[in-house]
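Deviation from plan, reported transparently: EPU complex.
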Amino acid sequence: MDKFIINGGKKLSGSIEISGAKNAILPIMAATLLAKGKSILTNVPNLNDIKMMSHLLRIIGARVDYFEGTLEIDTTNCSYYEAPYEIVSKMRASVNVLGPLIARFGKAKVSLPGGCAIGTRPVDLHQKALEKLGVNINIKHGYILANCSKLKGNIINFEKSSVGATENALCAAVLAKDETNIRNAAMEPEVSGLIDFLLEMGADIQGKGTTHLKIKGVKTLQPVEMEMIPDRIEAGTFLIAGAITKSKISIEKCEPGYLQTLMGKLEETGAKFEIEDNKIKIFPAQNIIPANIETQPFPGFPTDLQAQFLALMTLADGKSFIKETIFPDRFMHVPELNRLHADIRLEKGIAEVHGVPELSGAEVMATDLRASAALVLAGLAANGQTTISRIYHIDRGYDRIEKKLQMLGAEIKRIES
Ligand code: EPU
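Because the crystal trials were delayed, the predicted structure below was used instead.
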């Protein structure tokens, strides 16, 4: 297993480019199953989760080729409708094939995802939404067994906002008979990215970017070519890298509109920004003012940036509270950050962070994707050497993070096992 060794305490400078958004690309890859033929996705980073989804699509019968940021998916000969446990247990986003498989084959067999490092992650909302569209679902031997003779539009009223369930409902509704109204739909930019892709394929969807989506089913969809949207979580992670190392850096090829809540919070900590088209420059605070956050669905503060913001607060001048409402147990990074001499006390889904004057490098372990990013950020700011093991977690969702940080002048190297 590879490790990162970071010599912290160095200032960063310069500029890096943001990659395409993993959490938009994964559902779009699944959505290519809705049409027969070759779809082409550009601005696709080389991530382990994208390799895993490619593997799953190949099992289903697609031809998938990746070369320098371009992913070609030819679904002409797909004939298998199963997502096996060996894949779904490694990558929960595999559940995104459920809606597209039902729409294409009238049936699907998808393993239940099981445990996850960030907490309980049920699929009941996916199931209820698809049942509304006429799908019969049985859970047997650890699998979701779904079949449907004809998808039929209906009203889907989500009791809770869910990115994945909205995406599965959309993918089934676009080929259903008549109209579907999705209420309390997730408004995350990644859902809008999927909607743009479906519209390009020929779907009829109104209400993009709102909680009410109106879908008129069409008979067929066409394969398309599309550039993937930038990754707001990667962008946010690099902005926090500037804040925590007190360095002026720029991020390019990002979408500032997706980052308003984070930038507002960073401004509360004393940072300032210069925004120009798709470029953001951060002017960090030299004395970090504490700020409280509570994670919420978009446009609230994203759970996927909670760990990184918490890392920043460990060096604030005072106390802050970090409340996690999406995945209340998503605090695996806390004991590891405390190994770097942070002072974080955890109680009932809230972290009370007492800022310390400095962090000190130590050996720590990555436990999930965003927790790993938080440890990298803390390691960049800490005095001395930090070694982070199990960094395969970070390779799931950050494209060459160490290379991008090296371009900014960080002393970080990968030790291959
Ligand atoms: N939920 C249910 N039942 C369901 C589905 C979700 O109760 O059937 C709950 C979840 O337990 C959670 C809340 O609803 O409390 C929201 O979960 P959501 O379904 O929105 O999450 P997801 O679709 O499984 C995606 C991202 C996550 C990100 C969340 C929240 C992808 C592939 N994953 O997951 O990304 O944290 O939305 O924004 O898009 C990451 O990239 O590190 C990551 C975990």
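Residues 48-60 form the longest helix (13 residues). We consider this an acceptable substitute for the interim report.
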